[in-house]
Structure to design on (634 residues):
């Protein structure tokens, strides 16, 4: 099995197809050039090779099987895990003039049969099915009738038990080329995923029985995403302030529990934010309605558990906030990857607390398998290293996936504003002393109460108001002591029991610190209750908007919204924000100039060109002589 490649050297080129592929790319997708690695992957697919692709969300994975479907006979059968994802992708393909359809349980039987017959008749270039339907009796019957050019397995990490979204149904796909009198024995398979460790990559290849696949792995770094970790102190107030500062942006807030999702969404609503909840406890209709409202732009914020994920094909999510600590880097990376899919700046903000860590560790200890417990603890440790890092966050983030980063990324909080480390040794000694003098029988929240001189009934009943450590930390808020505790936990100086109540106790190295024989430092921004640092995304590859450009951009957004509503599709299916920004800046006034906008192909020119050109021309007529720059016709 070949190693992953970032160069085309292991793939024979197909120069005869070059002009044809470039033409299809522009005509149907509106792009003048391929993104990095796309052309090499497409060449390998068209050569009939099995192909494995690991490419971050927004990197253009789908094009790697969609374009070959247009360039070769037969149907490309796409295995996709979620109904909503199929719907969104097919909407976008049809808007680009591509013959695509899906068959799933959302269709009534008559419509499903009609689409199956159309597929048998060769009317589709791409057909989307869920793995459960494909491997069912009716699915295998349909498969036997089709002229399948290739199989594309999307979200391929779902086949691996070491992945973060393991689905047993995917296991059946390993036998997809068997039977059928050998009809599909030579049909190539392309497996695609946004996140996979080397272990998961090998497992995917084994489970799908890939044959010496050409492997491609893009960098896991997303330069338009800004990563920031904040202390979980008055987190709701911080989240609300952020949303108000970004009122024109759409975002996702992830919480660990259904109850937290409901509470967060309700509090945001009470504060004037149009936020909707999403979790597995809602009935199917409500979940579908809430996701639809977010995807179609009727709600700006969705508050969700990890149940809200792979079905999100929305490119203009401007922020992803983790209100609770994620359990593993894979899930965190996948979830933050839903921001900025269009390549424009987006923020990824994580709130961290030792209490969250303790909750996750408790649930890990409930796992019956020692192997599973060990693996889950290792995964959580990687999250903690990321959250506690005082250097470039990209180093531990993409290092998790086996990629080396040199640091100084320029788009994380530690690189934008290097943290100021302060000596907290004396306060660490106070905290450790309080743990010791209360008998190492209480949780950290209780220890903080003792330190801060709380009059809580429990503290008084235990006569801990008589201890020498009582009230010696009253000059600092609870959030500060949480930061000190985090540093001690991370340094192995303090530990929490694995039972439900998570009591704190000293380690041998913690005793050393308590005696003043070792130093402890913490990040100043985590040590004080001052306002958090403002988000500062890295410069994205986007042209700036002048005030007049922005007014036109908003007019174009409104037109996009109306057209999308009339057609019953998400706004981004009409045009993405990147295309609208280019229209607002360049002001094309003819069909040929309009085709120069990214994302505009012949189909969208015919369908949407007249309406958008009219708005651009009208804006120019109404503008008070600000001298917009027009793109001349070639």
């Amino acid at each position: 099995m070949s190693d992953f490649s970032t160069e085309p050297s292991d793939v024979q080129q197909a120069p005869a197809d070059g002009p044809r592929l470039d033409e299809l790319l522009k005509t149907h997708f509106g792009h003048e050039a391929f993104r990095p690695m796309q052309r090499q992957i497409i060449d390998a697919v068209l050569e009939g090779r099995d192909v494995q692709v690991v490419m971050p969300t927004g990197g253009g994975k789908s094009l790697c099987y969609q374009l070959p479907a247009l360039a070769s006979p037969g149907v490309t059968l796409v295995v996709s895990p979620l109904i909503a994802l199929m719907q969104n992708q097919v909407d976008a393909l049809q808007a680009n003039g591509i013959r695509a359809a899906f068959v799933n349980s959302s269709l009534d039987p008559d419509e499903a049969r009609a689409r199956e017959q159309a597929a048998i008749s060769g009317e589709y270039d791409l057909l989307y099915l869920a793995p459960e339907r494909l491997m069912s009796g009716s699915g295998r019957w349909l498969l036997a009738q089709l002229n399948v050019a290739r199989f594309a397995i999307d979200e391929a990490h779902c086949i691996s038990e070491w992945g973060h979204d393991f689905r047993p149904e995917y296991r059946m796909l390993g036998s997809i080329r068997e039977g059928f009198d050998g009809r599909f024995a030579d049909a190539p398979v392309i497996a695609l995923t946004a996140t996979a460790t080397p272990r998961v990559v090998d497992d995917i290849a084994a489970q799908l029985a890939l044959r010496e696949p050409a492997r491609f792995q893009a960098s896991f770094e997303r330069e338009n995403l800004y990563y920031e970790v904040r202390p979980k102190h008055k987190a709701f107030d911080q989240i609300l302030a952020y949303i108000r500062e970004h009122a024109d942006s759409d975002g996702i807030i992830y919480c660990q529990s259904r109850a937290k999702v409901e509470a967060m969404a309700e509090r945001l609503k009470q504060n004037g934010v149009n936020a909707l909840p999403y979790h597995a406890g809602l009935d199917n209709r409500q979940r579908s309605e809430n996701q639809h409202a977010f995807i179609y732009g009727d709600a700006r914020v969705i508050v969700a558990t990890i149940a809200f994920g792979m079905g999100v094909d929305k490119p203009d999510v401007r922020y992803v906030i983790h209100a609770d600590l994620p359990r593993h880097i894979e899930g965190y990376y996948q979830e933050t990857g839903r921001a900025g899919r269009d390549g424009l700046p987006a923020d990824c903000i994580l709130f961290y607390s030792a209490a969250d860590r303790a909750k996750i560790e408790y649930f890990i200890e409930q796992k019956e398998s020692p192997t599973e417990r060990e693996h889950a603890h290792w995964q959580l440790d990687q999250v903690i290293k990321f959250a506690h890092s005082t250097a470039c966050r990209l180093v531990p983030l993409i290092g998790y996936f086996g990629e080396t980063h040199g640091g100084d990324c320029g788009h994380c909080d530690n690189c934008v504003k290097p943290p100021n480390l302060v000596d907290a040794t004396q306060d660490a000694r106070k905290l450790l002393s309080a743990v010791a003098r209360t008998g190492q029988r209480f949780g950290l929240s209780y220890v903080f109460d003792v330190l801060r001189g709380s009059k809580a009934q429990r503290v008084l009943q235990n006569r801990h108001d008589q201890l020498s450590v009582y009230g010696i930390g009253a000059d600092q808020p609870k959030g500060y002591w949480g930061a000190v505790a985090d540093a001690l936990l991370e340094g192995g100086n303090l530990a929490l029991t694995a039972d439900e109540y998570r009591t704190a106790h000293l380690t041998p190295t913690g005793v050393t610190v308590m005696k003043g024989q070792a130093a402890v430092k913490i990040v100043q921004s985590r040590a004080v209750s001052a306002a958090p640092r403002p988000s500062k995304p890295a410069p994205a590859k986007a042209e700036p908007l002048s005030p007049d450009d922005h007014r036109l951009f908003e007019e174009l957004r409104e037109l996009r919204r109306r057209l999308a509503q009339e057609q019953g599709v998400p706004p981004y299916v009409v045009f993405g924000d990147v295309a609208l920004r280019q229209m607002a800046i360049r002001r094309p006034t003819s069909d040929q100039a309009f085709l120069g906008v990214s994302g505009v192909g012949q189909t969208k020119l015919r369908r949407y060109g007249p309406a958008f050109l009219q708005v651009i021309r009208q804006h120019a007529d109404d503008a008070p002589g600000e001298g917009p720059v027009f793109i001349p016709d070639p």
